[in-house]
Design goal:
The chain has 16 helices and 24 strands. By secondary structure, the protein is an alpha/beta fold. The protein folds into 3 domains: 86 residues, MurE/MurF, N-terminal domain (Udp-n-acetylmuramoylalanyl-d-glutamate--2,6- Diaminopimelate Ligase, Chain: A, domain 1), CATH 3.40.1390; 211 residues, Mur-like, catalytic domain (UDP-N-acetylmuramoyl-L-alanine:D-glutamate ligase), CATH 3.40.1190; 131 residues, Mur ligase, C-terminal domain (Protein-Tyrosine Phosphatase, Chain A, Alpha-Beta Complex). It has a 9-stranded mixed sheet with strand order 11-12-10-13-14-15-16-17-18, sandwiched between helices. It has a 6-stranded mixed sheet with strand order 19-20-24-21-22-23, with helices on both faces. A 5-stranded mixed sheet has the order 2-9-8-5-4, sandwiched between helices. The radius of gyration is 24 Å and the shape is globular.
C-alpha cells in the first residue's frame, strides 16, 4: 500500500490535487495499469508517458506523477496528482524508498560478460529454498531494476539483482538503489566503449559496485581476471575470491570435458568439496557457474543442493544454447549480443567441440565499441584466419574489415541478412555445428529460427 504523502516525500514532490490518498501499487504502463494503482509517466527519446496520464486514470481511477513543467497535462488531468522535477528520477526515488523499507539480504551482480547467466544460475540454485526477489531476464537498467524493487510485495529473504550499464555512473546509481550486502563482478572486458571510453573506464564503472556495497558487506572477486585480482576493498568490507584457473577461496576444476554435453567438474569451497556436471557449453561458462555457486553457498545453500541444481540449469534462448535442428546439425544460439571477449570465447569453443561435419561461424558485427571498433573487428578477423573453421559468414558494415583480414577463401561477407540465410541454407548439413552470434541490433535470432 502506498500513501500519497509517502509518495510525495519519496520523490520530493508537491501535492497538486488529492482525490485518493492510498494506492495498491506503482505502474509505468497505462495499458496494463489496474484499478487503484498510481501511474508514473516515463519519458524517452521516442515516447512520453505524460501523453497517457488520462488513459491511465481511466483504467485505475487513481493518480499520477507529472513534471512541474507540464501544466498542459496536470491542469486538465483527473485524480490525485503529485508534481516533480523529473518523473524518470522520481521512479528511481520511489524504488529507493521501497528498498529502504524492505528487509532481507540483497545481492548485486555486474560485469562485462556472464552477468545474466550468473544471476539466473543463482536464482535457480536459491529460488526453491528461500523467498526471493530478482529482476527477470536481463531487465538490468534503471527502469528494470526500479520496477523490480517496486513490485516486491513482501520482504524477501534475499534479493538478487543484475546491474547493467552503457554509460559512466549508471552502476553507482543502480547500486545505491539496490543497496547490496553482497556484490560480485564477473569480469572486465571491452564492452559499451562508446559510453565508457576504454577498458579502464569499464573497470572503474564496474568497480563502483564494490565501492557502494553496504558497510559490513561482502564482495566476490574473480581471481582469474587480472583487472580485478589485485583489488582491495574499502575498510568495512570482507572479500572472497573465486577462480577456475587461480587459487582462490572458491575454486572449480574440470575433471572431464564432455563436448556438447558440457563438463564434469569438482567444486572446492572452504572446508568442503563436491563433484557435479555442468551442462553448459564453453569454458567461459564455468566461471559463471562458480560465481553463482560461491554466492549461493554464502547465502546458506547446502553444497549438496548445488551439486543437484547445476546439471539441471538450462541457458536462456540466445545465450550460448545448443539447439538440435530438424536436419541433423547443431546450432549454437548465441544471438543475444557480442563483444570482443565473448566472440573469442565462442570461436574457441566452436573450434574445440567434437564435430563429424563442418564447423561454421555466422557472425554479426560488434557494436558500441567506440573509436576502437575497427581494431577489434580486425582482431576478430585475425582470430578467424588462425582458426580451423570450415566456413565463416559475416554480416554488417563493420565486419567488412573482418572479412578482408581473414582473406583465405573460407569467408563470405553479406550486407543483407536474407541473402546470408539463402546462402547458408545450401551449405549446412547433417553433422555440422553452426555458431550464430552478433550484436542484438542485427536480429541474429532470425537466423537461428530459420535454421532450426
Amino acid at each position: 500500500m502506498w500513501l500519497v504523502d509517502a509518495i510525495a516525500k519519496a520523490v520530493k514532490g508537491s501535492l497538486h490535487r488529492v482525490e485518493k490518498g492510498a494506492f495498491s501499487a506503482i505502474s509505468t504502463d497505462s495499458r496494463t495499469i489496474r484499478e487503484g494503482e498510481f501511474f508514473v509517466p516515463l519519458k524517452g527519446p521516442f515516447f512520453d508517458g505524460h501523453l497517457f496520464v488520462e488513459a491511465a486514470y481511466a483504467r485505475s481511477g487513481g493518480g499520477s506523477l507529472c513534471d512541474r513543467e507540464r501544466p498542459e497535462i496536470f491542469e486538465r488531468a483527473q485524480g490525485t496528482l503529485v508534481l516533480v522535477d523529473d518523473t524518470n528520477q522520481a521512479l528511481l526515488d520511489l524504488a529507493s524508498f521501497k528498498r529502504g523499507e524492505t528487509a532481507g539480504t540483497f545481492v548485486a551482480i555486474t560485469g562485462s560478460n556472464g552477468k545474466t547467466t550468473t544471476k539466473e544460475l543463482l536464482v535457480h540454485m536459491v529460488g526453491d529454498l528461500f523467498p526471493l526477489a530478482f529482476n527477470e531476464k536481463n531487465y538490468n537498467n534503471q527502469v528494470g531494476v526500479a520496477k523490480t524493487l517496486l513490485a516486491m510485495e513482501e520482504s524477501p529473504r534475499y534479493g538478487v539483482f543484475e546491474l547493467g550499464t552503457n554509460h559512466k555512473g549508471e552502476i553507482e546509481v543502480l547500486s545505491r538503489m539496490v543497496r547490496p550486502h553482497m556484490s560480485l563482478i564477473t569480469n572486465i572486458n571491452p564492452s559499451h566503449l562508446e559510453g565508457l571510453s576504454d577498458l579502464e573506464g569499464v573497470r572503474q564503472e564496474k568497480l563502483s559496485l564494490f565501492e557502494t556495497t553496504l558497510p559490513g558487506g561482502r564482495i566476490f572477486v574473480n581471481a582469474d581476471d587480472p583487472s580485478l585480482a589485485s583489488y582491495r576493498p574499502k575498510e568495512g568490507l570482507s572479500i572472497s575470491t573465486f577462480g577456475v584457473r587461480s587459487e582462490a577461496d572458491f575454486m572449480l576444476r574440470v575433471m572431464e570435458e564432455r563436448g556438447i554435453e558440457g563438463f564434469d567438474v569438482r567444486l572446492f569451497f572452504p572446508g568442503t568439496e563436491v563433484r557435479t556436471t555442468v551442462r553448459l557449453l564453453g569454458r567461459h561458462n564455468l566461471s559463471n557457474v562458480l560465481a553463482a555457486s560461491a554466492l549461493a553457498h554464502s547465502m546458506g545453500v547446502p553444497i549438496a543442493r548445488l551439486a543437484e541444481a547445476i546439471p539441471q540449469f538450462q541457458p536462456y534462448k540466445g545465450r550460448f544454447r545448443p539447439v538440435e535442428s530438424r536436419k541433423g546439425f547443431v546450432i549454437i544460439d548465441d544471438a543475444y549480443n557480442a563483444n570482443p571477449a565473448s566472440m573469442q570465447w565462442a570461436i574457441e569453443t566452436l573450434s574445440t567441440l567434437p564435430c563429424t561435419g563442418k564447423r561454421i561461424a555466422v557472425l554479426g558485427e560488434m557494436r558500441e565499441l567506440g573509436e576502437k571498433k575497427d581494431g577489434y573487428h580486425r582482431e576478430l578477423g585475425r582470430m578467424l584466419k588462425a582458426s580451423a573453421l570450415s566456413l565463416i559468414l559475416l554480416l554488417g558494415e563493420e565486419t567488412k574489415i573482418t572479412f578482408h583480414e581473414v582473406g583465405n577463401g573460407r569467408a563470405r561477407h553479406f550486407e543483407d541478412k536474407a541473402r546470408l540465410m539463402d546462402f547458408l541454407s545450401g551449405k549446412v548439413g547433417k553433422g555440422d555445428i553452426v555458431l550464430v552470434k552478433g550484436s542484438r541490433a542485427l536480429g541474429m535470432d532470425e537466423i537461428v529460427e530459420a535454421l532450426a
